[in-house]
């Protein structure tokens, strides 16, 4: 139940988007992107230079991220997901379009990337109306096996979302990078290439 509630809150707060799959080696990062390097050396992510990062959020979580991942990998029971990163264009009460990074423990009984993707899709279907998976492609992100998923969903009191998500794992930790736009507010097609570059830019330092 906690997992479903978290997914609902995250989707409502941030939104979601898409694009065609291109192998990691062929993807060139746009020159106008800037990169956020986690001060603890855990990860980095790149995004458009005109987007704003939520510094308050980062300062709240950066001191506990490493301990959290260590507990996951040591098998300590953890039921929550943690939002590591958020950036986008501030509009109203949220960021649209946006990128967010979430980490969580590997779901119990889920093994391998295909099983992980199926579990994540089931979780999103449980909290979203009219969920549609548009595409699912296997690729490499930072040399790791990953899947990129394009989908659409409708959320109560939120509207229609169009999203692209990359899922990968390190040890027992699941990493998801999601870019999103809100239909009727953002022009998804205008951001599609940027979203692809963002989700592929994740680097995890172990």
Please give a structural write-up.
- This protein is of the alpha+beta class.
- The chain has one domain (2-185, 194-204): Protein Transport Mog1p, Chain A.
- The chain has five helices and ten strands.
- It has helices at residues 2-14, 55-61, 65-73, 112-127, 188-200, and strands spanning 33-37, 43-48, 52-53, 82-91, 94-105, 129-141, 144-155, 159-170, 173-182, 203-204.
- The protein has a seven-stranded antiparallel sheet with strand order 3-4-5-9-8-7-6, sandwiched between helices. Strands 1-2-10 form a three-stranded antiparallel sheet.
- Strand 4 and strand 5 (94-105) form a beta hairpin.
- Helix 1 packs across helix 4.
- The radius of gyration is 16 Å and the shape is globular.
- Mean pLDDT is 78; it is low at 1-25.
Question: In a nutshell, what does this entry contain?
Answer:
This protein is α+β, with helices and mostly antiparallel strands and 206 residues long. The protein has helices at 2-14, 55-61, 65-73, 112-127, 188-200, and strands at residues 33-37, 43-48, 52-53, 82-91, 94-105, 129-141, 144-155, 159-170, 173-182, 203-204. It has 5 helices and 10 strands; from the N terminus they run H-E-E-E-H-H-E-E-H-E-E-E-E-H-E.
